[in-house]
Amino acid sequence: MSERRQGLVVAHLGKGLAVEGPDGRVLACHTLRQLGSVAVGDQVLWEPCGDDQGRVVAVLPRRSELLRPAHGGKTRLVAANLDQVLVVMAPEPEPDFLLADQILAVCEHRDIGAVLLFNKIDLFDGDAEVESQLQGYAAIGYPLLRVSVKQGAGMSELQAALAGKTSMLAGQSGVGKSSISRALLPEHDIRVGHISALSGLGRHTTTAATLYHLAAGGDLIDSPGVAVFGMADMTPAILAQNYRDFQPFLPRCRYNDCAHIKDQGCALREAVEKGEVSDSRYRRYLKLLEKLPNLRPGDSR
Ligand SMILES: Nc1nc2c(ncn2[C@@H]2O[C@H](COP(=O)(O)OP(=O)(O)OP(=O)(O)O)[C@@H](O)[C@H]2O)c(=O)[nH]1
Ligand SMILES: [Zn+2]
Fold first, then answer.
1. 4 CB contacts (<8 Å, ≥6 apart)?
2. Does residue 280 register a pLDDT over 80?
3. How far away, in angstroms, is 190 Cα from ligand 1 center?
4. CATH number at residue 71
5. Minimum CA distance residue for ligand 1 atom 23
6. Has the ipTM of the complex gone over 0.90?
7. Using one digit for the tens of pLDDT, what is the confidence trace for 198-220?
């Protein structure tokens, strides 16, 4: 019987995986069908099979899973073992706080941490509304970093926030996600080139998720596409539970299945009226509710 070794999945190839061993060497690996889905970020056990190839024989337990909606109401695993998502915003394009709230709620639901990353501060005129929303997030416990990749401002604080963790960037188009990854990654293209050159299992496409080691410590999973933060498995009650700022009030609603839409004994609405919960967060919650796929008539209480 051949020896099993541990490895880290760093990319998807056409028909297999790129797995990095403890010595840093990356190997093309097949996986056994019965293992189910294996994603970038997974820790796996593999054994050598053939020239410079391996076979993944086990997936080690995950500390988190990020899923994406797929065809036929199914979900697909996008990344495993993520520690945190960096929600990137900028003065331009105008911040989409609804998208930020959605990403934050999905992260909370998946036990993935979240950090707000306000980029392009070189363009920020201090707009009072934007500033108040940003400080609102900080007040409910989300770390807030302000950077300008263009000017190199705040980058060491960003590197410190990434060190020792596996992170992913998310956010609207145009906020600077690619610019930020480029600034953080050493020899980015060399590694992609190396993975593409792995034999036998087909090409690595840059449209698939890839894990990179950062120059200043920590890993970054680069996953193109913003639609990964799906809410398909959420109900209104679950969505509300994943708002950190709503959590203290929810047990006091009169009805267990309160969707926090109408008054009748809703402790959350009372908290909003008293100013204990941000009115704008609550109003965006009502908008996100409309995006939930499985809003049942009974939930409209
Ligand atoms: N002024 C300024 N411009 C920036 C900064 N960071 C990025 N940009 C510019 O913003 C534009 C969009 O940056 P990208 O890195 O492509 O943004 P993205 O989030 O990856 O966009 P998508 O690929 O569409 O998701 C580019 O023109 C960048 O040069 C910054 O700190 N300051
Ligand atoms: Zn309620």
1. 45, 46, 47, 57, 58
2. yes
3. 22
4. 3.40.50.300
5. 173
6. yes
7. 655 555 555 578 899 998 899 99
